[in-house]
Amino acid sequence: MGSMHQHPQKPNGNGAVEQYDVIIIGAGVVGLYQLYRLRKMGLSVRVFEDADGVGGTWYWNRYPGCRFDSESETYGYSFSEELSREWDWKEHFSGQPENERYLNFVADKFELRKDIQLNSRVSSAVYDESAHQWEVQVEGGQRARAQFLIGAVGILSAKYTPPFEGMDSFEGLSFHTSNWPKEKVDFTGKRVGCIGTGATAVQLIPIVAKEAGQLTVFQRTPNYCAPLRNAEVAPEVQSQWKATYPEIHKRCRESPTGFKYDFDPRSALEVSEEERLALYEELWALPGFKKWLGNFHDIMTNMEANETFAEFVRNKIRERVNDPVVAEMLVPKDHPFGAKRIPLETHYYEAYNRDNVLLVDIRKAPITCITPKGVKTQDAEYEFDVIIYATGFDAVSGPLTRIDIRGEGGQTFKDKWAAGPRSYLGLQSAGFPNFFIGMNSALCNYTVCAELIVEWIADCIGHLREKNLASIQPTLEAEEAWVDHANELAAGTILTAADSWFVGANIPGKKRAVLLYANSAREYRKKCHEVAANGYEGFVLR
Ligand code: NAP
After folding, report:
1. Less packed terminus of the chain by CB within 10 Å, N or C?
2. What is the arithmetic mean of pLDDT over 103-111?
3. Residue of 391, 443, 512 best suited for mutating to test ligand 1, as the one with most atoms within 8 Å of CB
4. Cα–Cα distance for residue pair 119/124, rounded to 1 Å
5. 392 in ligand 1 pocket by Cβ < 6 Å?
6. pLDDT, tens digit (0-9, with 9 covering 90-100), for 397-427
7. Distance from C-alpha of 287 to C-alpha of 404, rounded to nearest angstrom
8. What are the distances in angstroms from CA 270 to CA 264, 276, 304, 503?
9. Are 54 and 468 in contact (CB under 8 A)?
10. Whose CA is nearest to atom 17 of ligand 1?
11. What gap in Å lies between CA 454 and CA 240, rounded to an integer?
């Protein structure tokens, strides 16, 4: 891990207002590359980062088993061939400790730390219309101004913990998975409760189950989990990647999902059952997301096609769980395959074959409160030493609306996005000039579209400076058309067919709205480039 002393210190808040060309909020995957890119253009940039280290998601999510389920050679940045060649991925699907090391390596290699101020949570950002500048307030009182502000805050960074009654009274240890302690948590012999069974819980449950005395999993909705099939990277594979990174990166940039594979152009319904099952078995045996994103294209758009694969997956689950009652509890029946993010797993279902693991259906008997001793449901009380809240995030809009962002006429971003995301291209929102949304909310391998966004924003800022322009923001018409288009696209898929973070349905009171851009990443890239090439069509430049 890089040395902390190279980072600028947080001032005490009594000083003058600092002045930069660009302020970036967040030093994760987007923030680090954005800083690199803008600084190369000769701009003065300051990154404010809440954490005491860089890495964003890979800083916060330290729970055991945390890893990405993109292929490592496709998740790493593509912007520097030298970086790609210098870095060795140890696993095909790399784990959190290594991912955090990678992002620290990037910060050191490109000497990014001198412009990143850690332990600095931005509490507000206010647009000064006469000066065309943003003034940012950091908790503790520090103030800084810049012409451009970039919210590189991540789509899954605002953690959500359900406000269970009595949470503070719990006498044991408890934490949300994205606030996991830095020191190793020793579960040996402990009674552990885990609330939630999303992608996060699915990664940690098999590991905690092995260590804990007793693990109780509180499940509301079972998921379609599919085998990750992770492995160490053999030296010859590593060399092969290093020799072909330009092609790998090109393939990802040109693919509809940012991965190395495309959907099968055939319909699941146009082939014989035998042929269909043969493909399903073949995909199932492969590592990673190909069983989702390399499947028949219409499993994402046609319920009948979807059901053929959903039933295949249900049977795979049934095969792996010894107790048929527990197996049925783990089989999803209330939503289509892929309507929620598919968790990729390693020995997840086998965890339920262990004597020390208990699955509790909280759809039948909901949690009523947390007690000093543990978790109480409608029909029982469970005593724990540790409670893990694997309860997810207020996705996409949450990290932005939690900051007091005020645009033209004092309007707040929170109000603007109250009924769902209102942006043009996912990049800017009308009424918030010079504010860029630096997050990948496209349905795309995260880094692949994150790089697209970073580069688009950098080029846009370069264009404004070159033309000596003061501000950019979308027209309301362009924004409305984009929102309609994004909603229409999602309505043509099964993405809205479940209550998940994709539509904000995991947060009580959050307006149901599509949070992801459901187009092919290739089309998205094309559109972003076209808009820029046409003189930032749909934007007002002043
Ligand atoms: P999540 O998918 O939103 O899952 C949260 C879990 O908590 C769900 O099982 C949910 O049940 C449960 N829950 C929420 N509120 C509850 C309540 N009041 N009472 C009982 N249970 C409650 O969150 P996550 O697992 O942290 O994953 C979020 C996203 O992060 C993923 O979809 C993925 O995009 C990303 N992620 C990626 C990786 C990776 O790259 N491998 C790993 C982890 C996470 P319901 O389903 O019934 O709402």
Report:
1. C
2. 98
3. 391
4. 15
5. yes
6. 999 999 999 999 999 999 999 999 999 999 9
7. 42
8. 12, 9, 12, 31
9. no
10. 162
11. 28
Gap between the Cα atoms of 175 and 171, Å rounded: 12
Burial of 114 (0-12, 13-18, 19+ CB in 10 A): exposed
Is the CB of 362 inside a 6 Å radius of any atom of ligand 1? Answer: yes
pTM of this prediction? 0.98
CA of 444 relative to ligand 1 center, distance in Å:
19
**Mind listing the pLDDT tens digit for each residue in 194-240?**
999 999 999 999 999 999 999 999 999 999 999 999 999 999 999 99
Amino acid at 346: T
356-378: b or e for each residue (b if 16 or more CB lie within 10 Å)?
ebebbebeeeebbebbebbbbbe
**pLDDT score of 44:** 98
173 exposure class (CB count in 10 Å sphere: 0-12, 13-18, 19+):
middle
Spatial contact of 255 and 247, defined as CB atoms under 8 Å apart: no
Whether 400 lines ligand 1, by a CB cut-off of 6 Å, is: no
> Rounded to 10 degrees, what is the CA torsion of 184, 188, 189, 194?
50
Extract the tokens encoding 34.
Answer: 């954005």
Question: For the chain, what percent of residues have pLDDT higher than 70?
Answer: 99
Q: Is the C-beta atom of 225 inside 6 A of ligand 1? A: no
Whose alpha carbon is nearest atom 34 of ligand 1?
341
Are 407 and 413 within 8 A, CB to CB? Answer: yes
Cα separation, 205 vs 201, in Å, equals 6
CA 327 to chain centre: 29
Which two structure tokens, joined as six digits, stand for 507? 């947060």
Residue with the bigger pLDDT between 11 and 179: it is 179
CA distance 15 to 12: 7
Q: Whose CA is nearest to atom 23 of ligand 1?
A: 392
- Do 106 and 32 touch, CB atoms closer than 8 A? yes
Beta strands in 13-163 (DSSP E): 18-25, 45-48, 116-117, 122-128, 133-138, 143-151
Residue entry with tokens 């808009």? 531
Q: Quick one: tokens of 205?
A: 């449950």
